[in-house]
Amino acid sequence: MIIRKSQGELVTMREAGRIIAGVLHEVKTFSKAGKTTKQLDDLARKLIKKEKAEPAFLGYKGYPASICTSINEQVVHGIPGEVVLKDGELLSVDIGVKYKGYFADAAVTVPIGEVSENAKALVEVAKKALDDAKDKAVVGNHLYDISAAIQKRAEDNGFSVVRDFVGHGIGQKMHEDPQIPNFGERGTGPILKEGMVLAIEPMVNQGKSEVKVLEDKWTVVTADKKLSAHFEHTIAVTSDGPQILTKL
Ligand code: MF3
Ligand code: CO
């Protein structure tokens, strides 16, 4: 069952989303060679608390940090720690907050210093995939129109999409129905209705789509060790079209 939100609920989720956008902006600015991912996590937690919100990931199924920091071949769910960022790396930062009982969730991939041309292309394509997907979050469309748009953008550019992890509905829980794969058939899946809120999160790989989970039970990496990029927004389906809730 896909839960639809009232106008009032969307206002609250927009507030949660704005908090995430602000924190992501600060963390992005702070993410330079020489910083540890633990420093990013500390910064994010401090800023989330300052906004009277809670870090949604901390303690979720035992997850030990407030954000996810995934470097290079790490796709998602990298755990912040003593690892030091270096020029030329791709860093993906994923943040979720709970605010007044509602969740929002967003992620960006940022290049650290100068990165290779192919890495830049990967980041641009993943970002465009999310933008294409957003444009499909329209009343009357099918859910997998979103999925197909992501897959098309990635594959048309010679990249692949991760199939083992998906986007999701979001609201009073971080993960609600429906699951939103990053691949699918246009014109299939549930019909989108006003008030649905979707966390859409393309994970685009430079090489093959296969991934595996490291010993730490969290970090997802590409099986072929090639780069991966991840972008996510929490997006509401409204009568005025798609509304990105996780922006400033
Ligand atoms: N944004 C991630 C998702 O939608 C959440 C990270 S999982 C956590 O699944 F454990 F870190 F919370
Ligand atoms: Co998510």
Describe the structure.
This protein has 248 residues and is of the alpha+beta class. It has a single domain (7-238), classed as Creatinase/methionine aminopeptidase superfamily (Creatine Amidinohydrolase). The protein has four helices and 15 strands. The protein has helices at residues 7-30, 37-50, 117-135, 143-156, and strands at 54-55, 67-71, 74-76, 90-99, 102-111, 160-161, 167-169, 176-180, 197-200, 203-205, 211-213, 220-222, 228-230, 233-238, 241-244. A five-stranded antiparallel beta sheet has the order 8-7-9-14-15. Cobalt (II) ion (CO) binds at residues 105, 168, 199, 201, 232. Residues 57, 60-61, 63, 68, 77, 94, 96, 105, 168, 199 line the site of 2-amino-4-trifluoromethylsulfanyl-butyric acid.
Write the layout of secondary structure elements.
Elements: H1 7-30, H2 37-50, E1 54-55, E2 67-71, E3 74-76, E4 90-99, E5 102-111, H3 117-135, H4 143-156, E6 160-161, E7 167-169, E8 176-180, E9 197-200, E10 203-205, E11 211-213, E12 220-222, E13 228-230, E14 233-238, E15 241-244
Antiparallel strand pairs: 1-4, 2-4, 3-12, 4-5, 6-10, 7-8, 7-9, 9-14, 10-13, 11-12, 14-15
Helix pairs in contact: 1-2, 3-4
The structure holds 2-amino-4-trifluoromethylsulfanyl-butyric acid (MF3) and cobalt (II) ion (CO).
